[in-house]
Specification:
alpha+beta; five-stranded mixed beta sheet; Nuclear Transport Factor 2, Chain: A
Amino acid sequence: MKTSHLCLFTLLTVLLSSNYLQGQNNNNKIVVKAVYDLLQNKNANSNEISALTNGINWDEIGGSKKGINSKYSISFNAIMKNEWENILFKNLNFKIPEDDKVLVTGTVNGRQSTECEFISTQFKHYWSLKDGKIVHFLE
């Protein structure tokens, strides 16, 4: 009888823990999604963006923040600096590769204010969170 109670207790503990982690991961996904929603909101101002992304360690692959930014590529860093306008994120796909990590893939469209043509760029963003706050970003 004791063995069956122990098995039942262990099973309940595992189930409750997995639901808790699932909920935590969903909250992380919601936090990251809010960044994308805010960036494509035409009424958002730089203070709102700064408040939402304050304290993030920003990294871009290649080590050079200027290396990714170009006339034909939209980097997240350039979006944050308001170098692009009419930003629209499409086909966003959120994955949870591990606890406190969110991988977002998709397409971003926009145009630079000095150019007439719209650019479309595929992206892969890797977000790290701690206690529900974004602490690191890798592009």
